[in-house]
## 1
Amino acid sequence: MAETGQRQAQIGVTGLAVMGSNIARNLARHGHTVALHNRSIAKTDALLAEHGSEGDFIRTETTAEFVAALERPRRVLMMVKAGDATDAVIDELADLMEPGDIIIDGGNSLYTDTIRREAAMAARGLNFIGAGISGGEEGALNGPSIMPGGPAESYESVGPLLESISAHVDGVPCCTHIGPDGSGHFVKMVHNGIEYADMQLIGEAYDLMRGVLGMDVAEIADVFREWNTGDLDSYLVEITADVLSAVDATTGRPLVDVIVDEAGQKGTGRWTVKSALDLGVPTTGIAEAVFARALSSAPDQRREARGLHSGADRSAAPADRAAFIEDIRQALYASKVIAYSQGFDQIAAGSEEHGWNVHPGDLATIWRGGCIIRAKFLDRIRDAYAENPELPALLLAPYFRDAVETAVGSWRRVVMTATATGVPVPAFASSLSYYDALRADRLPAALTQGLRDYFGAHTYRRIDKPGSFHTLWSGDRSEVEA
Ligand code: NBP
């Protein structure tokens, strides 16, 4: 640790709350000299007091001191609250920086803000990188998954630094240049959306074991532990077993039973769904997960509705417990394939819309470690895109197609049983409907078009000849070419 002097830092970190301080420590532990800055000095001093011996830090108090402590081109990693705070810090930094310097926003910024900020910084000759960072506080310290978007030239300067602190899987860093401007924050947003879907599916699997099979929480924890040794091997399944194993010290009950059942959200899931709507991509798994959290967080309505008649048929509960647990596992896997397939579709659509040229295989590679959705499954996704970079949908890759076709009987039994017994499975059910709709020969969209033509003369196309047509519904009902 040192006061500002002639020594200069390879990188500066501003915003030293949980994420920023852990990333600064991670950078220092990898041999980089790190200038430290926070709006209020207390966090800087706390970091130095507790962890100053972990590496080479330069303490700075003001933004001017901070910028002056950096070697050129200056590299600043911002880890501040997303939104107005991020704009305020960028403005302050930009006034003190010079053309060629690089600002990295490692916060959870909305990608459209990143597009705007990147353009504004480029106009001032500054390089702006919007880097999605996943892994929470533990990942920030020990190796996160990093998704940087921005000018390719600036990645040459910051890429090696970021790659050095990222997680590594099979020697490959979980960090790569995603594409221009908002692409990094966009893929991080969809990553978080997939995380929502993953967690919702896990929740539904747990609820089925409780509600249909009447298993106790410890038994369900064992099932998740067992699942984590197979195809479902993932961080989220692993920590599900841990959370379900926790016992409340005060009451002696399973911790999950004393936690209020209202799920919070910070916004990235909602952003993903809004973007899916704008792009016209049916990201139903993520949408169901966001809506399920919203429903859980409507306690007044839920209280009033609690006594509604269920019409549930308890006799529909399967007698063979082991077989139904296997059905749930298959349904979880198949629904997870759908959620990822939809998420990758959304990324492809966003990439197309903004001209980002995002490589889906790269994402599967850098999501294998460090991030919350890390899973064995990601290896399969990476292989699928390596085999065919032009895959029309992840679901259609031979491996996933086989997996889902194998699972579909189980999936139907699970959704039927859940429906009969009154256990809500919005993500399982809508994923199955998505699958059925996608593989259908014909969809009722033909009727929708007929109705639209009837009341709004919106026209329709025919299966047997080109052109657009309209039926004179209120006249003689003959067809005219539109
Ligand atoms: P917070 O999101 O809670 O932000 C706190 C930091 O922002 C503090 O350093 C605070 O300074 C600074 N700050 C604020 Br608030 N307003 C400011 C302003 N107007 N000017 C300058 N600094 C300001 O911290 P976090 O949870 O460590 O997250 C940092 C970023 O990383 C966020 O964008 C977050 O969304 C993202 N992220 C978080 C996680 C996670 O697991 N927590 C994971 C991935 C990404 P102060 O100390 O002076 O108040």
## 2
Amino acid sequence: MSGPTQNGPLLKVEDLRVYFGKARAPVRAVDGVSFGIQPGESIGLVGESGCGKTTLGRAIMRLLPVHSGRIDFGGQDIAPLRDRELRAYRKNVQMIFQDPYGSLNARMSVGGAIEEVLRLHRLGDRTSRRKRAQELFQAVGLDPSYMDRYPHEFSGGQRQRIGIARALAVDPKLIIADEPVSALDVSVQVQILNLMKDLQREMNLAYLFVAHDLAVVRYVCDRILVMYLGKIVESGTPEEIFTQPTHPYTQALLSAVPDVDKGLKARHGGSDRIVLKGDVPSPTRKIPGCPFHPRCPMAQDRCRAEVPEWREIRPGQWSACHFAE
Ligand code: SF4
């Protein structure tokens, strides 16, 4: 597989759907998502748990089957490929998990785990793989003399550094990071996020950063996608999303983040927090009109009947709300 074209997006997702369960009443975990990622760009995917963001990340990685839609990478649609055909793609697109401990083999040394990735991708010989693992250890701020130790001998932050080193081993262009810092202490979170930012700059890496924590995506991302019930409901730069959110769901998420624009709170009767009614509805349920209307504090009759159009509200900022203005 060739790399991405020079000016086009690195990855382009079109009308992607991931359904589970019975054909008559499927769980629509991802329900018609489209977006692109440019080389070196960092995109944050946010939403409550159950909104479909982790499923979307895993479907793009092709760890889950795709119901319909396209995942274009380097001019090739990845969505219909089978396991063996995905090897080249998986060299270009790697994943970092929330719990690196779970994805590291407890009985394999951490250096061995990195060398193993290189071996699986048929890269180098034993000596060059060892050397590459040492370089990667250094790149993520770990002493290469620790390479023969086992996962349980490291702290959570160090293990995440190992997870990052392993993802970088095959020189990917895109990393899908699924809640990579949510299990870490706040001070360690910042160190890992700074490391990820530095590596991005040095290697022109693109990130798809799946996180429930808006402060985290604000810190690392160029663009934010807000997801609700399997759909993207708003997208924009962190500045736009944080200071001029147009979708009531984004506004509700932001109201739970400390220090966000006081004006937003004022618009909701001065309350500190916009409390949404009920939980995220079951993704098996077909909701007429706007999927957010059962919980939206601003819902009107039109919202119950008419699906809001996905439209550009300001240059670069898109929203799916009838009253986004
Ligand atoms: Fe709320 Fe209506 Fe906008 Fe949907 S379209 S987010 S229900 S105001």
## 3
Amino acid sequence: MQHLRDKKILLGITGSIAAYKSCELTRLLSKEGADVEVMLTEAAATLVGPVTFEALSGKKVWTSLWNNPAQPIPHIDLQRNKDLFLIAPATANIIAKIANGIADDLVTSVASARTCPLMIVPAMNVHMWQNEPNQRNVELLRADGVFFSGPVSGSQACGDIGKGRFKEPSEIVEDIISFFSPKVLAKKTVVMTAGPTFESIDPVRGITNRSSGRQGFDIARCAQRSGATVHLVAGPSSQKTPEGVIRYDVLSTEQMLDKVLELCKSNHPDLFIAVAAVSDFRSKTSSQEKIKKVPGVDEMTLTLVKNPDILATVAALDNGPLCIGFAAESENLINYARSKLERKKVRMIVANSVSAIDQTDNDATFVFEDHEEPLGKMSKEELAQRIIDKASDLLKEKVR
Ligand code: C5P
């Protein structure tokens, strides 16, 4: 799925050591479908050659206000019809100039002539970042409506450690995707579950399932991009936490329920989405020591007890959130999904076949009290966005 298809991005690169990372940034933006046009300051061009960016963007790279026969007034024409002007990396120097309206080269002239939004990705030494004039300039730019991506803390090219480091290109791309995402969940709070649970039997063994957590993490990412504050309660999963999502790791169903109820109490969410493939049963006892084989004994009995139902519990809360659940079944999918909807008293069930577990694609149907909406096969990420769009519609209806 290309998230930046048809987006025209003008990328200004300035003279920070991190300029080499903008090669990867250009590649990733193009991979997401963006039409990228690159400009280099004189200092940037001494660090990374324009030919590299010409190959990566497939376009002529601009380095000067002057001697451009094909583009006599580049500072006006280059930014015309662009969806975003991105400066990455941005030095303290360029930040200072733009904050104060100085236009003495191509990149700063484009910045002052621009009619499109500007996003700045700073990259500099920690002391330069903290320097008071720099902080004043950053505040001026924020007040002017300029967007910032980073900087982050970490080790720096000079050996110092601290804030000022260039954000990773993939994270910058995520910020840009978020920037362009319609904010259908602006000012909304979402609590959700994802991944499997792990019900321990002894210190090393337990009952779990093959859920990767991918669908839930994709939903969390889309909710975050759509402007929501997202609290994600995750069972054991190796999925990367989406940028900006607040993650709480738990193991068992009971821990998951406790965390969800605590979050519902303290955050009064608008929406609860139960995506976790929760274990229906847990072992009645969990041994403190590893269970040993006993010579001559060929059988062992494990007594299982029912776990609490997180979704039904949240759906029963007074003034609780709008609830969306999942049904993964191997047969009679829609019938089971509808009976789940009625039993748990939730607004919508996303019905999908168990074959979706651990896969990248899904083929789901939205099941409501009085009708269903089959969606057909799509990536889990695409389905995630459809769920968020539907949740936004349901929230507007104000019916739980
Ligand atoms: O009853 P069943 O497990 O089939 O229901 C599936 C839906 O209920 C999913 O949304 C799942 O996350 C949620 N669930 C839950 N707590 C449980 C069992 C399932 O929240 N103990």
## 4
Amino acid sequence: MTTLFIADLHLSPLRPDITDCFLRFMQQEAPQAEKLYVLGDLFEFWIGDDDNSPFNISIKNAFKTLTQQGVECFFIQGNRDFLLGKRFCAETGMTLLPDTAVIDLYGTPTLILHGDTLCTRDEKYQEFRKTVHQKWLQTLFHWIPLFIRRKIVSNVQAKIKKQKRRKHMDIMDVTPEEVVHELEKNNVIHMIHGHTHRPDIHQHKTANGMATRIVLGDWYEQGSILVCNSTGCELQQRPL
Ligand code: LP5
Ligand code: MN
């Protein structure tokens, strides 16, 4: 049996190649797994669980079919789908996890998270995150008609894109001290996250010994999956 992890698919109707690869994965590969964890940024942007566009329905149906086949599916919000919530999960049979969770991965306690909270040197982003995670602002946003929400998002995205190009690559990676801090706080030596789009396996020295941090890849050029079983984990790719 296997446990699968994916993140940073950035699904949108503008990239049918990624969507097709994802749906193939959901139909042909995921049903053989016992669990599937989505560690954020499944969507390019999620404006609310009330957005029942045909595209969103097709993705929801893929998860619903998978959970009905007995595969447990879990979701951790990313920086692009932080508005995906309980309703989406109820409709699909998925379980919404908090921003960080410690899971039992074949006997190894493993900390899973999207990864954006580890990028503490990206102060502008952290400030932005704090703003958009305020409950009152999210409630207010949900009251706005969907077509206006879409406009707000594309305006903000265009504005932010220019800012992001000026950022140094280093500050958009995780802060090693923050990684160690999170590992020690949760008393684990295994971590899996996405967000940085830099798939790799890193080692960190912690108070509890050497720790392993696995970074998931994005789906811009290929499908990226972490496949784990009782003997270990492997980062794998699938053609789009
Ligand atoms: O995902 P990626 O890798 O491209 O970039 C992320 C960070 N960017 C984001 C932004 C989102 O993708 C797009 C957000 C659109 C939001 C629309 C508003 C919805 C309102 C909802 C209200 C409840 O997450 C990027 C990081 C990068 O990861 C690497 O870590 O650097 O961060 C940024 O670029 C953010 C800027 O640095 C700061 C932007 C400030 C803009 C202020 C606008 C305030 C809008 C408030 C809305 C009410
Ligand atoms: Mn992200």
